[in-house]
Amino acid sequence: MEITLKDLKETIHETHKRLKNISSEDWSSRNAPTKWSKKEILGHLIDSAANNHQRLVRVQFEDNPAIRYDQDKWVMTQDYHNASINDLIELWLNYNKHLTHIISKMPKEKYERTCDVGKEESVTLEWLVKDYLRHLKHHLNQIMGELL
Ligand code: NI
Question: How far is the CA of 139 from the centre of ligand 1 (A)?
């Protein structure tokens, strides 16, 4: 968990600088009409942070809570495309900073508590944290177009 936490902290701080250098045209461009723009991918990462905020907190005192979200509907409903990119970047940064705070406060004995995220089997708190980072890096690579 400590390694994952360190990796998450480094990833968000390194990425923050680079996100600010992306042009607004680049943020709005779309590879295909049905695909998310870079701005919408960043929005999806905010949704991921928001939903995982719920998971990482509630799983610590609720038994196997069901916390799922329809990612396309979340992105579509919020019209990220017409939101301020600077606001989105800062929200993304601060949301992630708060998640690192939550992760740093997790008692070890809670790591095996489980959450129902819609997969065939429930997942553990430790798995959630690792998967959160994996998912974050996957989409940051899509935004920045290179490996982190
Ligand atoms: Ni995703």
Answer: 7
